[in-house]
């Protein structure tokens, strides 16, 4: 008989009842995953609108943007944003996108939904912590958004919140009093939520794998979520102290980050002895692993999806997993490459440059494995497959510019130019986001029991793919000719000839953004009107395709699956005549 | 190209599809106690965050000549002894309450005696932990009397930050212990001790962390 007492202190084995318990304060990892996804959707929408505002101002600095003047009379008098408000919007764009989109969507959303199912578990190890994680993240989002509505607006210090600008308070500029406090509190909440979430993922992966699901047989997306959660656990554990010290500098009069002798708005600041460089070290010690937190889950998702559409096994799966682990380990050794021009000892630049170049090796291995996995396959060009191929393209484009930035001699010139903006948008905004898109189109049938519309999906892919290249490729050129970033208007003579390039980028950005409306529409239309999906429409192998679409509340209807195969069994003739063997099926060849 | 994925297959929701072989409805195999795994993972995170605070302190001390050393109040050492004692009483409590440390306590009167002894040691541990926290607040008062506030000097800033952070984490441990005590007191059953190893692990870790912090503060402040 099915034994319900195997883990007495944990998951309920009865279905939840009541609207609040089922849909709001749910302990079910699937609901929580969808909640994270919804939060990421809202965040990306806000972030995208912010990017439109920034781009419009860059290309047409004197335009009166309707509604903006109404939204913020001080920030954009008459609809023309002040340079400070440009920085405010820039800060919020970066913060929302990096934290609330790229850490939430590929990691928290898909990870929460599919990690337990892919390892054959009924739920996460700590469902109540899981619920707390989501609602703490939600609270962090609300606090962050509140900074838009306070008198002085959001902070102007960038998503990196460099001290002393972020630490001194309102004397230094608009948004740096209440706005920066709200930002810091929001990030503290986000850290706590992420730490709990990472803890949950790790405990679940270690403890709750079903019989036969050894670490070696886990799907690559599960491996990616596992490695990412280890990185996240250690990285957010450093950002939290950093933000606490920042808050103390701001409200308690301490001087961790504020040096002596600062005179702001004609007032001598009552701090002394602190080190702005200390903030940079603490922040980037978190910040660099954070960008791998943003990209690794997407790589895992692509590695899981790609073989399904090439109908052949992924090449070098152990090398892929080994590379993920190597990246996780090395990511803690390279943070100084964000600080080459910060004034730290130039010799230490070498100490950071070498591991930065070394970290390109596992990243390249993964990229080459993904690319080579396509060779010899019988490709099915459905939308998830297109986004997989698109991922490879944008990841290579973004990765190559990283090689240049890794050299201090080149970075001295390229730092804080549009070259850097191009690099990180390609690898984060595009590559990571393409992973999210691929995952959405791939897993939508499992989550909602309906297929997304293929035609709309293909339109979305092609418009997005061409559009993002139009937006971000020219930025490499801009950076090389010296266009500095974080400027709201280009009044220097040498930058004026670049305005037409900025106009081109702006128009491309607006059109590409508009193309995302196809995706939003497809999501909501397919939810209610999409064609009914079978249990395994893509003929994939991992455990989520062995249960209903959507899965029941305990994922497998009380069954404990026994796993006898790895996730990579594609291509060869299977006993039942198909070209794949599922993980939950009898041992291949038996 | 490929199968026609739009072809609606049997939409009758079967619990599992026919082509996937299920394991028999066996009981799940015994898994490691997940609360303990959770605490171990938490320990890594907490170590990392105190490492961050430590490196912040070392850098801050090196960067500017405004660091003023001050003498740590003697009460701090008494608090340390209290915390160490609480770890020892917790070990004793766990031995009385579970079958791990010694053979099954005999059923009947002796078993009950062992259980209630164990509960008493738990109460004492809870008390000692609370005394430690109160003692830490008193240490802060002693510093305030000397004129050393959070913002007076970087050395005092870090002292307050470290003791506050440790105290907050210990408070979490005290609340977990209280939850454990409540559960055991209500059910009066030794079978409900599944969370106890995790609580003990966390408590001993807090003790060890405090010893590290004490040495750090003695050497640096």
Describe the model:
The complex is a heterodimer of chains A (590) and B (221). Chain A has 590 residues and is an all-alpha fold. Chain A has one domain (30-259, 270-546): Up-down Bundle (Cytochrome C Oxidase, Chain A), CATH 1.20.210.10. Chain A has 15 helices and two strands. In chain A, a hairpin with a 2-residue loop joins strand 1 (263-264) and strand 2 (267-268). In chain A, helix 13 runs antiparallel to helix 14 (454-480) and helix 14 runs antiparallel to helix 15. Chain B has 221 residues and is mostly helical. Chain B has a domain at 68-220: Up-down Bundle (Four Helix Bundle (Hemerythrin (Met), subunit A)). Chain B is 68% helix and 0% strand. Chain B has five helices and no strands. Chain B has helices at 34-63, 75-97, 109-146, 154-187, 196-220. The chains are: A mainly alpha (590), B mainly alpha (221). The interface between A and B is large, with 76 and 58 residues.
- The percent range for helix content of chain A is 55-70%
CATH architecture of the domain at 68-220 in chain B: Up-down Bundle
> How would you sum up the major sheet of chain A?
2 strands, antiparallel
Distance between the termini of chain A: 27 Å
Helix-strand blueprint:
The complex is a heterodimer of chains A (590) and B (221).
Chain A: H1 19-24, H2 29-59, H3 68-71, H4 83-118, H5 127-149, H6 178-207, H7 220-251, E1 263-264, E2 267-268, H8 276-310, H9 317-330, H10 346-374, H11 383-405, H12 408-414, H13 418-448, H14 454-480, H15 499-529
Antiparallel strand pairs in A: 1-2
Helix pairs in contact in A: 2-4, 2-5, 2-15, 4-6, 4-7, 4-8, 4-13, 5-6, 6-7, 7-8, 7-9, 8-10, 8-11, 8-13, 9-10, 10-11, 11-13, 11-14, 13-14, 14-15
Chain B: H1 34-63, H2 75-97, H3 109-146, H4 154-187, H5 196-220
Helix pairs in contact in B: 1-4, 1-5, 2-3, 2-5, 3-4, 4-5
